[in-house]
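HOLO CASE FILE
Compound: calcium ion
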Amino acid sequence: MQHTFSILALSSTLLLPVSAKIAVKKVADGFDRPVWVGVPQSTKKQLWVMEQNGVIKAVDPESGEKTILLDICKQVSRQGNEEGMLGLAFAPNFSKTGRFYINYVDKEHHTCISRFQVKGGAIDASKEEIVLRFKQDFQNHNGGWLDFGPDGMLYIGNGDGGAGNDPKQRAQDLGSLLGKILRIDVSGDKGYEVPKDNPFLKNKDAKPEIWAYGIRNPWRCSFDRKTGDLWIGDVGQNHWEEISYTTHKDGFGANFGWRLREGEVATPANDVGGDKPKDNVEPVYVYKHGGGKDEGFSVTGGYLYRGPVKELQGRYIFADYQNPRIWSFELKNGKARDFKDHTDELQPKGGNIKQIPSFGEDLDGNVFIVDHSGPVYQIIEAE
Ligand SMILES: [Ca+2]
Ligand SMILES: [Ca+2]
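Model generated. Tokens follow.
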């Protein structure tokens, strides 16, 4: 009997797959098209979840109870898959001022960067201040990401306006805010100022808010909370998805190549692609379109992981929206190395992650995964 038992024990050990080092736990569920998650600097460690239709909900970390913090659905346009309320940034001094900023597309198809304030635990929607507003050419490629950089300035990721192959050639045009990353100073009482060290102030034809250009659709980007480096998930056209990277210092005036370049090649479309522009910043990682394990159709930029999960520390974690794979790599000498596919180990028990529009980070560097179909997960060490 004992002999049989030990054989069984041995064979089951041999048959076990390599044990997963990381896993997910569900931290909230039941949202309507969630697109963003984050945690404000407050003692309560509330989870804030943004729904694409124009609602922000707070989740109590103890009870899981949800409260509607803000509902501006009536002024948010929701045409196609890419319009809506898209991103949020807490002011660096949020715990003192309660200020935060959102990026949404309004009913007249303009991108709005709006300031709101939490006062006494509530948000008065009538006190919205539109800080910056500009027209979108088409319903897609609205960018959506915004956050504060290591210098305290607000950075805004703008898509090229939309359609396909940047027909209005916005991304290389410094006279347009589209296809850019903007940098503005919102630390004053009202509106914004253009920082005096923005890179194109001397160019009379350039919009002064522009910080970097040549970008197609920077739907999700992130600053490395340790180094201040910027990671850009730039959604590709018909062939290549890309992750671009810059140190904060080198990002001033950087050209990320679109629409001349898709990934590492001349954009493969008639009369669109071209040679690398001067000072072109190559992506650090690209993947081709397809349904394979290392392929996809629409990159979702993630985070350089600085949280408590050992397996991921120092690695950039990201995903594909349509082919919901989750990957990571390390950046070494300017290129992605040691690529890993985490898709299988990050599936929830008894289910699967369906579409990944966004990651999110808490105050300790824990990373969340948002599933567009409703739930939000946190990445944890496997038991
Ligand atoms: Ca657009
Ligand atoms: Ca590029």
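CASE NOTES: The radius of gyration is 21 Å. Residues 114 and 130 are 4 Å apart (CA to CA).
CLOSED: yes
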